[in-house]
Amino acid sequence: MTGSEPSFTVEVDQNTYLHEGATEVDAVVTVTATGAPTVAAAGALEVLVVDTSGSMQGQRIRSARQATVAALAELRDGVAFAVISGSGAATQIYPGRGGTAVADARTRAEATAQVNDLTAVGGTAVGAWLTAAGELAKAHPAAAPRHAILLTDGKNGEQRRVFQAALDGVRGLFTCDCRGVGTDWRVEELRAVSDALLGTVDIVADPADLAADFRAIMESSMGKNTADVALRLWTPRGASVRFVKQVAPTVADLTGRRTEAGPQRGDYPLGSWGAESRDYHVGVAVNAGTVGDEMLAGRVQLVRSGSADVLGQGLVKAVWTDDTSLSSRISRGVAHYTGQAELAEAIQEGLAARKAGDEPTATARLGRAVALAHESGNDNTARLLEKVVDVLDAPSGTIRLRKNVADVDEMTLDTRSTRTARFRGGS
After folding, report:
1. How far apart are CA 157 and CA 322, in angstroms?
2. DSSP states of 159-200 as a string?
3. Under a CB-based contact definition with an 8 Å cutoff, are residues 92 and 129 in contact?
4. Cα separation, 113 vs 81, whole angstroms
5. pTM of the predicted model over 0.85
6. Closest to 31 (Cα-Cα) out of 194, 268, 339
7. Nearest CA to 37 among 282, 216, 204, 276?
8. How large is the angle between the packed helices 187-196 and 126-138, nearest 10 degrees?
9. Cis-peptide into 236, omega within 30 deg
10. Residues 137/45, Cβ–Cβ less than 8 Å
């Protein structure tokens, strides 16, 4: 089974000019992959992890069964797959012998029959579910996309150290998109999973919407044909990396995920790719220069993790000048995404303060979020904020906290706080 891989381009948006003595260089790196695959990648793996704990009884388990069946229907022929039932332990229900099956009409029908028999009983042990998925991923080629969908409706019952150990144990083995159904689960728990496994997290408030959501996730996964892509950043001697963040379509801090790739080089994981575009904000600290000095502050390359093959490349430059009209100009892309990262942070801090009963901090941080959403044109986030606060004046961020806020509105704002408005236009 083969599939044509996308081709990559790397574009750098920055103001290269710095004032004398300046040491901080910023750039927005846009990575674009074109050429969607027509067939699934060789060795691709899909694992469906379905919460079947006791709290999933009734409409939730019925909708979970329907959603899993919908996801199975989207599997392309030749993809390896398995289905795990998650309660106080992880039980693989298909294939029942362990390992994985290869998707075709027969295996999809067999898996569907097993899924339709799922019942809800027991506790919730997300770490054990992830570990089981990780064991399956270990048996598949690292060069192929390995993806999981994880659904839960409740709080994880494992001790924090057990959960963290499980998360650390599967990091880098597969990517994972997480969904919470209803409002009894913890956003921070599923965000920890999605952040560690380079996936997404979202709320599905109405169980009836699960099938459409699972179908969309699987369609996206089937479109990814290049696995384990990494951003390799070279910096000159004496320089240091301040941060590397994904800033579109969502905010994700990759700084702590660096692995060394040679002298003055480090790799930052970007997960699997299909035909898509993502933006990254790279910050580098260099030695101070004098007027007229020029230097290469960074070389950004797209590579396969652990490989020397370069898929694309861009350069980050620095030029010192005494012309303030040049050095004072801020790249519009850098400014935009700096604001988007602050927006996500302000929302999460504001909601945490609100839960803690700290109304002054909640008002200040959520007010700042309203102003940033308005300034950047992030209309989707602005609408979500309006369900949690009364907006008196959006440009200034003047708000009033609402006394009664539905759990679903608060959790939706929290889970979607990292979604950014894409910057369009030159620097």
Report:
1. 60
2. -HHHHHHHHHHHTTT-EEEEEEESSSS-HHHHHHHHHHTT--
3. no
4. 15
5. yes
6. 268
7. 276
8. 20
9. no
10. yes
**Phi/psi of residue 310, nearest 5 degrees:** -95, 120
Helices 407-415, 187-196: inter-axial angle, 10-degree rounding: 20
Tell me the mean pLDDT in the region 47-60: 97
Q: What is the 3-state secondary structure (H, E, C) of 231-246?
A: EEEECCCCCEEEEEEE
pLDDT digits over 171-186, tens only? 999 999 999 999 999 9
Q: Which two tokens stand for residue 419?
A: 């979604």
- Both structure tokens of 40: 């699934």
Kindly report, residue by residue over 377-407, the tens digit of the pLDDT.
999 999 999 999 999 999 999 999 999 999 9
Task: Please state, in angstroms and rounded to a whole number, the distance separating the CA atoms of residues 378 and 419.
Answer: 9
Nearest in space to 151 (alpha carbons), one of 130, 191, 181: 181
> For 175-197, b where at least 16 C-beta lie within 10 A, e where not — what string?
bbbbbbbbbebebebbbbbbbbb
Q: Are 13 and 331 in contact (CB under 8 A)?
A: yes
Strand 201-204 vs strand 175-181: parallel, antiparallel, or unpaired?
parallel
DSSP letters of 118-162? ----S---HHHHHHHHHHHHHTS-TTS-EEEEEEE-S---S-HHH
On the 0-12 / 13-18 / 19+ scale of CB atoms within 10 A, 395 is: exposed
What is the C-alpha separation between 47 and 138, in angstroms, rounded?
Answer: 12
Q: How many Å separate Cα 406 from the centre of its chain?
A: 26
Beta pairing partners, 12: 29
Token look-up 């399956």 returns 136
Paired with 7 in beta bridges are 34
Is the pLDDT at 425 greater than 80? The verdict is: no
Q: What's the start-to-end Cα distance of the chain, in Å?
A: 43
Instruction: Please compute Rg for the chain using Cα positions.
Output: 23
Given a contact cutoff of 8 angstroms between Cβ atoms, the answer to whether 312 and 302 are in contact is: yes
Both tokens assigned to 349: 């801090």
Contacts of 337 (CB under 8 A, 6+ apart): 28, 245, 247, 248, 279, 281, 420, 423
Amino acid letter for position 291: V
Higher pLDDT among residues 37 and 26, named by residue: 26
Q: How many C-beta atoms lie closer than 10 Å to residue 246's C-beta?
A: 25
> ∠ at Cα 170 (79, 94), nearest 5°?
40
